[in-house]
Amino acid sequence: MGEIILRSENLNKHFGITHAVKDVSLSFEKGEIHGLIGENGSGKSTFCSMLCGIYPISSGRFLLDGKELKVKTQVDANRAGVSIIVQEMGTLSGLTVAENIYLGNEDPFVKNGIKNVAVMNKTAQALLEQYGFGRINASAMIDHYNFEDRKLVEIVKATYFKPHVVVIDETTTALSQSGREVLFTHMNRIRNEGNTVIFISHDLTEVIEHTDRISVLRDGELIGTVTSADVTPDDLKRLMVGRELGSRYYRTDYDEPVSSEVVLSVENLAVSGEVDHISFELHKGEILGIGGLSECGMHEVGKAVFGASFHRSGTVRLSSGVHINSIPCAIRHSIAYASKDRDNESVVISDTIRDNICLPSVDELRTKRVLLKKRLDRFAQNHAEQMSVVMTGIGQYVADLSGGNKQKVVLARWLGKDSDILVLDSPTRGIDVKVKADIYALMRELSKKGKSIIMISEEIQELLGMSDRILIMKDGKINGEYRRNPALGEEDLIAKMV
Amino acid sequence: MAEQIKEEKNVRGALRFDQKPWVRELLPLLGLLLIVVIFSFLTGGKIIQPKNLQLILSQLYVPLIAAMGVFMIMTAGGLDFSQGSILGLTSIIICWVSQYHILLAVVAGIFAGALMGAFNGLFHVKFKIASFIVTICTMYLFRGLCQFITTDGPIAATVAVVALNKTWLKILLTGVVILIGFFVFRFTRLGMDLRAIGAGETAARYSGCRPELTKFLIYVAAGAITGFASFINVMKVGSITGTAGSQLETQILIALVLGGLPISGGAKASFSNILIGTLTYSILEKSLPMVFPVSATQQLVKGIIFLCVVALTIDRKSLRVIK
Which of A170, A201, A360, B93 is the most exposed place for a label (fewest CB within 10 A)? Predict the structure, then answer.
């Protein structure tokens, strides 16, 4: 057991009546990388925000080196020896690299109210060299650099003054592999200097690999702290969610036959610059996965099937012979579509849950061409409940919902419509583990009922785990087709994508 | 547990005072009451004398009816500045046709208004020009026509039309239009589509609405409704000059905002916006001259009041560029 540098004692945070952090008492040792994990909304970011003076503490306290830490701003926190690298862009546009590094700490360079830019740039450049980022020019505008380089500047900004505790909040998702390596190198360096890193990430493998200990938060409570060497990602998932996920997460069957009945055929579909004359068929009760890199054209294929691709050639035809050429036509013929761009295309964000659920079914909901509020209410309530949307009521605006709940509203509206063909583009994007599992279960249930699903996804695991058949697209063409098969691995799909 | 926490979060979201639906609904009503109380006090009760109330009522019909169309346009996220000019031009047409047959005049007014609305809609939807630009242009265009036609003097309607100028008839006609508007807005697919389009056009399209068609139709409808309002206008004034209906467009827009309609439209549009807003505006319009005899002061006070009301009631969350 090492020496304790930072301790939280009975820490609480309330937002209104929400209790976001509940009585968390947690110790961090000198010279460790301490992982902090939990689902979306479990309180990890709130915890760190209080540590760094971004949010005021509701009750409880932090002890740094035995003394109570009282900070009101991030600059206070820096002075006390605590810094943070945030999830979003943490550098300010319109300032130079050096100005960003010394933001809030310009005093050493200021004499009689005048900032000595030359000295500041020189000092900053020396720092950058020291970190091995010599290619970044301290006097250049930060805007000249891409997201990744700006993150590197943030690493410098957060660590040059040798803070005792550095918080790294979900930074890796934004970084490429090489950027991550750089980050991990610096995390190790900080640890070896005897300081502490608090590392927040959703990538459990990464967390296990790069931390010494891991603390798990769930619903604002500390569930426990484990030694990284002793756990597997599944152990962590279990701790995060509080129930066994493993087997139920994806489907487990491999030899269930798919009906030979074709419900939809796409022939020679082409969208200039996006999709290059592709043809495929969708069977009854099938989950057809379409994967590829983000720019491979698969998202446009989803739109085309829904009649929402406006400059396309080729045909999208139902088994009944009907051609799908417009959105109203697609909806009328029982095709549903959940867009990747959830906020702009899937839900009318500043409208109520009721209207969102009712909109596609509005023609069926009319009583002699008249819309009765009672009937709409009942319809929306039923389907929102069926999808267990967490809401104050169907009159709540969708904008107030979390990502997972928005997606539930999207699914509720199409279940309400009783659609036979569902096109789901990135159905679990940005959604936490629990809702993800719900969505997978629902897809499974639908396909058993004979509904056909086209699942477009950038997540290879999801494609492998859920699809009866997988189409891999590359540069607008279908580059590979696979049947569901336990032997199929990520590498097979990746090979066809790039 | 996770459910619970999220639920609490959402409850918190809904609890924000200014977001509660009933606050939004009640604020304009409170504004109306406040203005009635303040001006009853300032005018020594004169404004609530039957004589003045009658005057207010007589000035209410035309803006109330014409506001109906603009309300629907704004709900779908558009704007319309041309209604005043449409009123002027259709009034002239009604005067002409009334020489032959009164019912025909009503139909002609509605038809002409619809045609002008279609012109707006065509340019907005087909040529994809922002609605406020299109309608500012047509405002000048139609007004120019009005003034050209009336160069040699006002156009008069037949006496039979003026003879119809009975309060009960005006109330009846206005009431019928309001009821129809209310029904369409609350109980038809069109009303629901309008709100959805205003709240998010792309998402509405992906939900099966036809934003282009719908928007075109409401411009036509708004023109037609104003065409009908013109008939009441002609009943009241008998002869039409080149400036007939000018300022009506701003009057309607301000009334709707006073009534609590979010400028960007959307799901928060409520039918009561029209009634409360028009009433508030009319009372202000009538009482300001009683309190401030100088017209310059009236303008000043009017500006300040509007600014205050808008600052208090506007929905900042849904503010964005108006299409």
Answer: A170
